[in-house]
Amino acid sequence: MAKILVTGGCGYIGSHTVVDLIQNGYEVISIDNNSRSNPEVLKGIETITGKAVKNYKVDLCSYDDTYAVFRRIPI
Ligand SMILES: NC(=O)c1ccc[n+]([C@@H]2O[C@H](COP(=O)([O-])OP(=O)(O)OC[C@H]3O[C@@H](n4cnc5c(N)ncnc54)[C@H](O)[C@@H]3O)[C@@H](O)[C@H]2O)c1
Questions:
Q1: How far, in Å, is the centroid of ligand 1 from the Cα of 38?
Q2: Does the N terminus or the C terminus of the chain have fewer Cβ atoms within 10 A?
Q3: Per-residue pLDDT tens listing for the chain (75 residues)
Q4: What is the topology classification, in CATH, of domain 3-72?
Q5: Alpha-carbon distance values, 29 to 2, 14, 53 (Å)
Q6: Which residue has its alpha carbon closest to ligand 1 atom 8?
Q7: Among residues 5, 2, 6, which one has the least CA distance to residue 14?
Q8: CA-CA distance, 41 to 47, in Å (whole number)?
Q9: What is the 3-state secondary structure (H, E, C) of the chain?
């Protein structure tokens, strides 16, 4: 199963994109620091799709923190 990283996966466009990707067979990982969103949205995604989505609460403006996610998971 192809794995896709969605930035801002807890936001408006991101969360809808995550649902669409899951429904089309992708495994989705999100990076979102929740500066403009509520992590509770992930529960809604799971309710709709039946799949839990892992979100890394990381500031994408931080190279080191973002790079650390890529080191942890092969995308
Ligand atoms: N909603 C629209 O109709 C629309 C239209 C055109 C363009 N856009 C653009 O698309 C993008 C997403 O729009 P949206 O409506 O989903 O916004 P949104 O605020 O709902 O989602 C953005 C997400 O990114 C996260 N985020 C912000 N800064 C971050 C950072 N530094 N590190 C990690 N996560 C961060 C926020 O917490 C949020 O969950 C924005 O750039 C917006 O300007 C939106």
A1: 12
A2: N
A3: 799 999 999 999 999 999 999 999 999 999 999 999 999 999 999 999 999 999 999 999 999 999 999 999 887
A4: Rossmann fold (3.40.50)
A5: 11, 11, 6
A6: 13
A7: 6
A8: 10
A9: CCEEEEECCCCHHHHHHHHHHHHCCCEEEEECCCCCCCCCHHHHHHHHHCCCCEEECCCCCCHHHHHHHHHHCCC
Mutate to test the pocket of ligand 1, among 10, 19, 36, 45 (most ligand atoms within 8 A of CB): 36
Ligand 1: list residues with CB < 6 Å.
Answer: 8, 10-14, 31-37, 59-61
